[in-house]
Amino acid sequence: MHEPHIALVTSASRGIGAEVAHQLAHPGTHVIVNYREKAGRAHAVADAIRDAGGHASAVAADISDESAAEAMLAGIRQRFGRLDTLVLNASGGLERDADPGYAMLLNRDAQRRLVTLALPLMPAGARVVFVTSHQAHFYPHKAVPMGYAPIAASMRAGETAMYGMRHEFHRRGIHFTVVSGDMIDGTNVLTRLQGPALEPRRSAPLPSTDEFAAAIAGAAQSQYHPGIVYVGGSEYLRTA
After folding, report:
1. Cα distance between residue 164 and residue 33, in whole Å
2. First to last CA, the chain
């Protein structure tokens, strides 16, 4: 009997993270649904995966809290002994009044620490997927919505920190992919910041949560190990 494939998705209680968890769920995969506060939602995601015949569990951990991140990885080690896929979906900072310090803690420092903790559990051939937005990926070379600069700067710093670990990834035989997406139709914080004024400037529709999640899950499972995947925003990318 083959060992199960173990996949951890951060901030997976709702939105893109929850949909990624669903799309990663296969009979031979156990999906770990990480959440910070929304226990009911996270357990509902895990329950839905199990009801569909998959394997999943919900694990609470605020990844910006070092001891909580360590405890989560220790629990994964004790239960499974390995981690095959790590999807770094957690990002934010606007909920703390755009505090640049908190945004950098979450989007750079916490992500880097979580990967460092996870690496000893990841065998050769494992995957790390870093999720970002076009507005952060191309920061500061393109303008961003008002109020989003601290988030863009911190997510760009997080991506740069991941690139700084590529030598270690290569040494361990771990594949690393960045998935950068345009604003998500109706749900993304950037859409809320720009509001209705966004639409006249876009001739192409914004990607949906399902489309973005499918790209992330695809990057995590692709046999071609892409270095970067862009989702939507053809107009944005042409001028980037």
Report:
1. 27
2. 48
CA angle 221, 60, 106 (to 5 degrees): 75
Confirm if 161 and 113 have CB atoms less than 8 A apart.
no
pLDDT single digits (tens) 48-97: 999 999 999 999 999 999 999 999 999 999 999 999 999 999 766 555 55
Q: E-strand spans in 36-113?
A: 55-60, 85-88
User: What pLDDT, in 10s, does the model give residues 163-205?
Assistant: 999 999 999 999 999 999 987 755 555 555 554 444 445 556 7
Question: Please, are residues 10 and 34 in contact by the beta-carbon 8 Å criterion?
Answer: yes
Contacts of residue 207, defined as CB under 8 A and 6 or more positions apart, other chains included, come to 181, 182, 184, 185, 231, 232, 233
pTM metric for this prediction: 0.91
Strand order in the sheet with 5-9: 55-60, 29-35, 5-9, 85-88, 127-133, 175-181, 228-231
pLDDT at 129 over 70: yes
Quote the CA–CA distance of 46 and 204 in Å, as a whole number: 34
Read off the DSSP letter of residue 66. Answer: H
Domains and CATH numbers, the chain: 5-238 (3.40.50.720)
